[in-house]
Design a protein that fits this description.
- It is found in: Membrane.
- Residues 1-22 form the signal peptide.
- InterPro entries: Bact_OM_lipoprot/Surf_antigen, Gly_zipper_2TM_dom.
- Helix content is 35%, strand content 39%.
- By secondary structure, the protein is of the alpha+beta class.
- It has a domain at 58-142.
- The two termini are 59 Å apart.
């Protein structure tokens, strides 16, 4: 039995030694050193400062106001046209009464022109020289405002006892993913 016991001890010792030799060394790509599997690791962020820039923003604003304008009667108004025509006819008849021959024609034309002017003025006075009305005017004006915008973050992190600073588009939080590259030392 002692021989069997010794053989059993030797067998157990050989299997433990074989298992230890078959295990990869701790510096290789083992499961307990997973962060180096894909060439990345995580480093704690020491500080993260926003990079702020002032930006001018033009804001359109519509401004309206009331304006008083004068309006005059239009010539196309029937009462103005009618009075002007009637004044021209009466003036032409009166002018025709003066002069003779060629002077008669000139007096008729002059009487018609003067009568038309008197008729037009009479129509304008009847309607009032001008009326005032309130018109709303509007205009778009641009107002400049300044806003602060975050363009990115200046991130300082620590890895293997050294501090590094980089610029990122976002705040990474408490830790940052870093690429780890290991190369053999030459010489």
């Amino acid at each position: 039995m002692a021989t069997v016991g010794r053989a059993l001890v030797i067998l157990v010792g050989l299997s433990v030694t074989t298992a230890a030799l078959a295990a990869p060394p701790p510096w290789s790509n083992s499961r307990h050193n997973r962060s180096y599997d894909d060439g990345y690791d995580y480093a704690p962020v020491v500080r993260s400062e926003p990079i702020v820039r002032q930006v001018r923003v033009e804001t359109p604003r519509r401004e309206c106001w009331d304006e008083t304008v004068e309006s005059r009667p239009h010539i196309s108004d029937p009462s103005v046209g009618g009075r002007t025509l009637l004044g021209g006819i009466i003036g032409g008849v009166i002018g025709h009464q003066f002069g003779s021959g060629r002077g008669n024609d000139a007096a008729t034309i002059a009487g018609a022109a003067i009568g038309a002017g008197v008729g037009y003025d009479s129509a304008r006075r009847a309607q009032g020289n001008s009326t005032q009305e309130v018109v709303q005017r509007c205009e778009v004006r641009y107002e400049d405002q300044y806003e602060e915008r975050i363009e990115g973050y200046r991130v300082t992190y620590e890895y293997n006892g050294r501090e590094y600073t980089t610029r990122m588009a976002y705040d990474p939080g408490a830790k940052i993913r870093v690429r780890v590259a290991v190369a053999p030392a030459e010489g």
